[in-house]
Amino acid sequence: MSQVQSVASKTQVLYRTAIVEGLDIFYREAGDKASPTIVLMHGFPTDSHMFRNLIPMLAEKFHVIAPDYPGFGQSSMPSVTDFEYSFDNLARIMDKFFEELKLDKYSLYVMDYGAPIGYRIAVKHPERVQALVVQNGNAYDEGLDNDFWKPIKEFWKDKSAAKASPLLPLVELEATKWQYRTGAKNLEAISPDGWVHDQAGLDRPGNKEIQLEMLYSYGSNPGHYLQWQEYFRTHQPPMLIVWGKNDQIFPAAGAEPYKRDLRNLEFHLFETGHFALEEFGHEIGTLINAFLSKNVSA
């Protein structure tokens, strides 16, 4: 096999499905399984599609897994009456997914919703986590002290139709575009493929109800922050921060506190918004490859 063919086979993305408690968990996979594994944990309102350009970059050196959570992307989407859409339950399902794939050592890339899901798993299995890559994923109160969260915090206090009503625009197209475009340095670098893909998922019958449940459940996460911070201090996982500093949801104020707790921390802020990969994917991929090569072995 030629060198070109060898690289191409490593970077080819395969689209697979695992069964976990009767649910289809879709995932993208690439790279050599003998190489160190990195699991890419997506945010809201997207799915593993957000990693479409990053996966081939990482797969030359690493085994890459990028799953969709239940209710997101190509995974099963049971109704809110048939499935508990909470961060505790999604973390439980994804932990079982890791075990189904026999992942006993891995790094985690956590973004947005991927952070509270990934950190729950990391606290449960600290011996399995080799490194953390954090992109606009919060673990500190400072990261939620902004205007975006004010109506959501009211919903946490009172799960009523009146408090839910101001949140309904968050699952509409203009809000999805806003997440991609706000804070970007160069709007021409932001592909519309992202928000078109994500909105198609949100527009499925029943999905908006799912997303409201997840917004409500996000209120459970601050109660875990001290536990997660203790995990950082005790286990000191090598951490790479690659953060869009102009994010209006998780601004740079949420990135800075990681410096208090991590000794092996590489810290980068990018002049972009929530979906930093859309504008700085090449730069972030290069940093991840170098960081994992230095800190992780098979």
Write structural notes for this entry.
It is a single chain. The protein is of the alpha/beta class and 298 residues long. It has a single domain, classed as 3-Layer(aba) Sandwich (Rossmann fold). It has helices spanning 3-11, 54-59, 87-100, 114-124, 150-157, 161-164, 173-181, 193-202, 207-217, 225-235, 258-261, 276-295, and strands spanning 14-20, 23-30, 37-41, 63-67, 106-111, 129-135, 239-244, 265-270. An eight-stranded mixed sheet has the order 1-2-4-3-5-6-7-8, sandwiched between helices. A hairpin with a 2-residue loop joins strand 1 and strand 2 (23-30). Helix 3 crosses helix 4 and helix 7 (173-181) packs antiparallel against helix 8. The chain is globular.
Identify the CATH class.
Alpha Beta
N-to-C series of helices and strands: HEEEHEHEHEHHHHHHEHEH
* Number of E-state strands: 8
Strand order of the largest sheet: 1-2-4-3-5-6-7-8
The helix content is 25-40%
Q: For the terminal residues, how far apart are their CA atoms?
A: 24 Å
Question: Hey, roughly how much beta strand do the residues contain?
Answer: 15-25%
Which structural class do the helices and strands define? alpha/beta
Count up the helices: 12
Q: Which topology does CATH recognise?
A: Rossmann fold
Please give the oligomerization state of what you see: single chain
CATH architecture: 3-Layer(aba) Sandwich
Q: What is Rg?
A: 18 Å
The mean pLDDT is: 96
As residue ranges, the low-confidence spans are: none
How many domains, in number, for the residues?
A: 1
Give the overall form: globular
- Kindly report the name of the CATH homologous superfamily: Alpha/Beta hydrolase fold, catalytic domain
